[in-house]
Design goal:
By secondary structure, the protein is an alpha/beta fold. Helix content is 44%, strand content 18%. The chain is built from eleven helices and eleven strands. The chain has a six-stranded mixed beta sheet. The chain has a five-stranded mixed beta sheet with strand order 7-6-8-5-9. Strand 6, helix 6 and strand 7 form a beta-alpha-beta unit. The longest helix has 22 residues.
């Protein structure tokens, strides 16, 4: 091989090495924004995934809680992030609903994001303060119907999953009660346990501790069938109120413009993790069902259908646009 050939070969090798280095992902820490407070289902799922992903990538996967405004703050931060593949968010239906409740939303729930994949689905638990004379869902509905203005329910703000779930339940029950929004989970739980709040509709991971120790009385899970984490709690379908179903989806979004190759890799890696028996068991203990059949295309389709669903819900329930 002459000198010119050697030089050409070296240039080719350098080019290939440069391309390989440029395509390596990730090369620095990844940020996962949680638009809800610590203790929420989105927080639980993000932290469950962050350890295995950090181990797999050799780069820290940092969970960054940015609660507020029903999820608008966290999702708004993501919408403004660079689409380089290093910033994501673990979102749920409030990502869509909170934006629909704004006259001038800081983002569009679909157009301003890149869909990665659904991670899990989690139902809510309808629970009441122990002093409320309702031992099952039928008794609660009857109690609320007798004097709706006398009773209230808690949420983490307008447009949050707890607000959506409670409004779906209220609509199914045919009642309009008083909405009491809080900023953090501990305040919600303490006020409900004390009896100053009468009932709530919160995700299984969020209120499982106070349900297990009896500080709140669980009446039903908002799914078609019983949840493995609480097999003794009937479903709303069993209780004769199927219209109260409100299973929540939880998934990863990136800002607009994340390269398809990175999206495909992250989705494949997350799917690999949530398929592992130990992770599925961890999910199940908190009432979450791993979305092992999801991916970018399936999640995009789900988000579009959910957008249409919540546009209708906001109108039907009469949620006030701010």
């Amino acid at each position: 091989m002459n000198q010119v050939s050697r030089l050409a070969a070296m240039l080719v090798l350098m080019f290939v090495a440069g391309v390989a280095a440029a395509q390596k992902f990730p090369e620095r820490p990844i940020r996962v924004i949680v638009p809800l407070p610590p203790g929420s289902a989105s927080d639980f799922l993000s932290r469950t995934l962050s350890g295995p992903l950090t181990e797999l990538y050799g780069q820290q996967v940092v969970v960054d809680n940015r609660p507020g405004a029903g999820g608008l703050i966290g999702s708004g931060i993501l919408a403004k992030a660079t689409g380089d593949g290093y910033t994501y968010a673990m979102v749920a239906p409030p990502h869509t609903v909170a934006a629909l409740l704004q006259k001038n939303p800081p983002y569009h729930p679909l157009r301003d994001f890149t869909m990665v994949m659904e991670v899990a689905s989690i139902p809510n638990i309808i629970a009441v303060t122990p002093g409320l004379p309702a031992r099952n869902l039928k008794e609660l509905v009857a109690l609320l119907k007798a004097d709706p203005s006398k009773y209230n329910y808690a949420s983490l703000g307008v447009g949050t999953l707890a607000h959506i779930g409670a409004e779906i339940f209220n609509q199914a029950a045919g009642v309009r009660t008083v909405h009491v929004p809080f900023k953090v989970v501990p305040d919600v739980l303490s006020e409900t346990v004390s009896g100053r709040v009468h009932y709530l509709v919160f995700t299984v991971p969020t209120i499982s501790p106070v349900v297990r120790d009896g500080r709140l009385r669980a009446l039903a899970v908002t799914s078609a069938k019983r949840n493995p984490a609480f097999p003794n709690i009937p479903s709303v379908v069993e209780e004769g109120l199927p219209a109260a179903r409100s299973d929540g989806w939880f998934g990863l979004l990136g800002p607009a413009g994340v390269p398809k190759k990175i999206v495909a890799q992250l989705a494949a890696d997350v799917k690999k993790i949530i398929t592992e028996p130990r992770i599925r068991e961890t999910f199940a203990k908190q009432g979450a069902e791993a979305a092992v059949d999801s991916g970018p295309e399936a999640y995009d389709k789900l988000m579009k259908s959910e957008y249409e669903r919540y546009v209708k819900l906001v109108k039907d329930v009469g949620m006030q646009v701010q």
